[in-house]
Amino acid sequence: MQKTTRFSLTGLAASIALAAFTTTAHAQEQWTMTSTWPENLDLIKIDQHWAELVNKLAGDEVQINFRAGGTLMPGSEVFDATETGSIEAAGDWPGYWAGVNPAFSPLATTTSLFNGVDYLNWIQQWGGRELYEEIYGQFNMMYLPYGITNNESGFMGRTPIASIADLEGKRLRLSGRDQGRVLEQLGGSQVTLAGGEVYQAIERGVIDAGEFSTPGVDFNAGFAEVADNWATPGWHQSASVFGVMINMDAWNALSEEAQEKLRIAADATMAWSLAWSEYESNAATQKFVDAGVTINQFSEEDLARIQEVTNQVIVQGACENPDHAKVYHSMITYLQEYATWRDVSVPFNMSRTMDNLPSLEEIEACL
């Protein structure tokens, strides 16, 4: 009788434990996610791609309800909303938060430094991923970089810009803290506008020219309708990174397995985004040409001067903020280390070959 009772109790305990495990394993979190991008800007496709992958890979534990930028709140408010937990996640471009911490600027883009493959290498193997997590972690957020686009179009407008001399006195829409500093030293004036406002600003002559994103994004935003001239290359943003801010409490509520699935979805989206944006940029460049837009390219001498100014701005910013210095120190260290292989594989190397980098020693002195 005692053996039977013991067996029954043991079996009951096992059943309860199994039921508890099953309930935990299938508990589904409902996340609200939005973006800095409205529906009419193609960059939102990167956010959507990740959210859809997560729902496929980890849908049994977390379901993301994605809302386009501007439908829940202005894009400028998504940082605070994610930090406080008003929403669980938001897609972003880190440069928008450079006023909160200047380290967000190089986490988003660089002036005349990284290209898309550099960001990919750095994030995946040279410590970049950890720096995103560290900087966003200061604001109660996990961050998963999941989008990379190569260098941006450049300045588009009705005013011809064929050299840096043509930048003198021009009002140019430009996003980014470090980018604005470089432009000002070259004689131009930075005008800050939301992406959705650039079209009208060019059309109405509020700015002489403006930049927003890659040719594919810019063409679909209608820039060929209002711009007659295009200045390339887009030195102001030699590549860009996008990702998702996740409230730390929401992140910690997930199992380690689900967290890993979100990371896998981010890596897959990163690879997709780079190829997608390059394909779109190629097709859109031809569309701009067909629309009669004149393309002017900066000379090698002009680009060398831009590099000199960029290096000065990077060191200046590093000495103003230790986080800013830490990110750039990591980036420049990567470029120096990767040169061991990169420079002997020219012209088939995967990264940008450079012989004029910002001074690592000066940045180290500011750490």
Automatic annotation (TrEMBL):
Q: Which UniProt keywords apply?
A: Metal-binding, Signal
Report the domain of life of the source organism: Bacteria
According to its UniProt entry, the protein's GO biological process terms are: transmembrane transport
What name does the UniProt record give this protein? ABC transporter substrate-binding protein
Query: Which positions carry the signal peptide feature in this UniProt record?
Result: 1-27
Q: Which residues are Na(+)-binding?
A: 212
Query: Has UniProt tagged this entry with the keyword Metal-binding?
Result: yes
The UniProt entry's GO CC annotations, sorted and at most eight, read:
tripartite ATP-independent periplasmic transporter complex
Output one GO MF annotation. metal ion binding
| Native organism taxonomy | Bacteria, Pseudomonadati, Pseudomonadota, Gammaproteobacteria, Oceanospirillales
Binding residues for substrate: 152, 173, 211, 237
Q: Which organism is it from?
A: Vreelandella nanhaiensis
